[in-house]
Every structure is written in structure tokens, then in C-alpha cells.
Amino acid sequence: MTATTATAAPAPQKINWLLLLLKARTFVALILVLAYFSFAAPNFLSTANAVLVSKHVAINAFLAIGMTFVIITGGIDLSVGSVVGLCGMVAGWLLLNGIDVGLGWSIQFNTLEVMLIVCLVGIFVGWINGTLITRFNVAPFIATLGMLYVARGSALLSSEGRTFPNLNGTADYGSSSFPEIGAGSFLGIPVMIWMLIIVTIAASYIASRTPLGRHIYAVGGNERGAALSGVRVRRVKMFVYMFSGLMAALVGLIIASQLKASHPATGEFFELNAIAAAVLGGTSMSGGRGRIGGTIVGAFVIGILSDGLIMMGVSSFWQMVIKGLVIIAAVVIDQAQSRLQTRVALSQEAAASR
């Protein structure tokens, strides 16, 4: 008599709806804020307001993209708001004064040259942050907090606290197109939105399609393990802080060209919006996890929330409270998602070992 053993078919895995909901929290938040302000705020869905919101979102998104890379590596950049102000002042100085070389001569710059110099300033500030963190082992929080004060103080010193007005450029120097950076449009779409599209595509490609992107995630997931596997951790960290500085420089240029003026206080608290957008978009504060697409959606949530509250006449004090609560809620939800993912992974391993 032959004994046969019947193999039971594996039970279908149960879909963890809570985990799916946590992963999709950014889209859920976007739908909720859109639905709420569509009814609560007058003219919220008008074309003019949509264009205005998109411009505000773009400013947050540039900074949030750079912040995403930094946070994925396990770091933080608190200096981006001050770098925005500093780079705006550099742009104003170059347009109005140029560079004095003595003997009554000065070097004047066209729009592209101003943009290049300002971007180099932002990258240089990011290089200083990266050097402090990688070479001198200064904690990212302390290094970038110190740079926040240095950059803001430098912006104030550049004009003794005054505004650089009338940044219309000069046709003779080829700088009359400067206001087009923030106020111009191409094919009916603001130039700054085209810039954001290009930056988003480039950042997404770096994050998902290049060895550098894999190294950024590896450093944030396990820095020691990444170093042992041959990843040049210092270079990766230098890149993310320099990239964050570049994003801040672009925002400084955009705001100065929009207002046709630059003020040293520009960019105050911008770092909070950038962190909020990145974390709300699914970037883990503990590092190793985050997506550029999620960050863009997070920037939309923060931008729509800010503009909607303004249209409803909510006090700026309450706006700060609400943004702070959004950041706290995003971090709490991120931690809950991490714990739930760990629990699901352990249960799957236990089921597989039976």
C-alpha cells in the first residue's frame, strides 16, 4: 500500500490595506486639501489662482527635491532658506553693480552669466556644508544650522540690510531678460515650471537609473555597509549637499526675478516647507527611502495648503501652527509605516520558513 502526501495550496496573501493607505498618504492628503479648499475658499479653482499656486509649488518643489536627496542619505539641510536669500542678493548685486576691478572699471554680466555665478555660489555653500560633514565629522544638523546664520548674515552685510530694487537689467549688458526667469512664459506655461520639469526629470533619472542614485540610497540605508561595499560615501554626501545648494540658488534667482528686487530676508522658514514636502512625500527621516515623485506631490500639498489658508483669511500665526502639525503628522505616519512594513516582512519570512 502506497502512501501519498497531499500538498496544500498556499493560502493567498492578504492585502494589507492599512499599509497601502500609508504608502498612498500623500495622494490622499492632496485629494483632501483640493476637495476642502474647492468648497471653502472662493475662486480657488480659477485659472489665475491655479497659475499662482503652481508658481508657489515650484518654489517649494525645487528646495524639496534637493532636501529629498539629503534626507535619503540620513542628513538634513537647514541652510537652504538662508542660501535663497544670499543668492538673491548676489544676483541683485551683479545686476546693479557688477564687479568693481578698480580704476573706475567694473565687469558687467548678462543674464546667463548672472545665473551661472549665482548657481556657483549655491553649489559652493553646499560644498562647505558637505566638507564640514564629511571631513570634519560635524553633525549635519549643526553644520547646516551654522551655515543658516552665516548665509543670512552675509546676505544682510551685502547691502547693510537694504533691498536691491529695480532688477530690470540693462539691455546694453544683455541682462534685460532677467525678469523673464520668474515672470516669463513659454507656450503658455511659466518658465519656472519648465525649469522645474527639467529638474524633476533629471533628479528622478539620477535617483532611479544611475549608480549615483543607488549609492545615495545605500548610504542612507546603511552607511557602514555601503562603505565596505565600495561606495565612496564622502563623494555621495558632497554631491547631495551641493545639489541642495544649487536648488536654493535657483529659487533665489526665481524670486529675485519675480519681484524685480532682492531682499536679505528672503527665504525665511523655506527649509521647513522643503522638509515638510519631502517627508509628506514619503521620504524617511531615518534615511534610505524616498522618491522624487512623492516629493513633488508633497510640495503640491504644502503649496495648496498655504495658498488655501491665505485665501480663507486664516492668520499667519495659525498657518505656522498648521504647517508644524503637518510635519509632525508626516513623521509619525512615516514611523508607523516603517514599523508596519517590518511586521509584514517578519510575518512573511515566518510563513515562508514553515
UniProtKB/TrEMBL annotation:
<feature type="transmembrane region" description="Helical">
    <location>
        <begin position="292"/>
        <end position="310"/>
    </location>
</feature>
<feature type="transmembrane region" description="Helical">
    <location>
        <begin position="186"/>
        <end position="207"/>
    </location>
</feature>
<keyword id="KW-1003">Cell membrane</keyword>
<feature type="transmembrane region" description="Helical">
    <location>
        <begin position="111"/>
        <end position="128"/>
    </location>
</feature>
<feature type="transmembrane region" description="Helical">
    <location>
        <begin position="27"/>
        <end position="45"/>
    </location>
</feature>
<feature type="transmembrane region" description="Helical">
    <location>
        <begin position="57"/>
        <end position="76"/>
    </location>
</feature>
<dbReference type="InterPro" id="IPR001851">
    <property type="entry name" value="ABC_transp_permease"/>
</dbReference>
<protein>
    <submittedName>
        <fullName>Erythritol ABC transporter membrane protein</fullName>
    </submittedName>
</protein>
<keyword id="KW-1133">Transmembrane helix</keyword>
<keyword id="KW-0472">Membrane</keyword>
<keyword id="KW-0813">Transport</keyword>
<dbReference type="GO" id="GO:0022857">
    <property type="term" value="F:transmembrane transporter activity"/>
</dbReference>
<keyword id="KW-0997">Cell inner membrane</keyword>
<keyword id="KW-0812">Transmembrane</keyword>
<dbReference type="Pfam" id="PF02653">
    <property type="entry name" value="BPD_transp_2"/>
</dbReference>
<feature type="transmembrane region" description="Helical">
    <location>
        <begin position="238"/>
        <end position="257"/>
    </location>
</feature>
<feature type="transmembrane region" description="Helical">
    <location>
        <begin position="82"/>
        <end position="99"/>
    </location>
</feature>
<dbReference type="GO" id="GO:0005886">
    <property type="term" value="C:plasma membrane"/>
</dbReference>
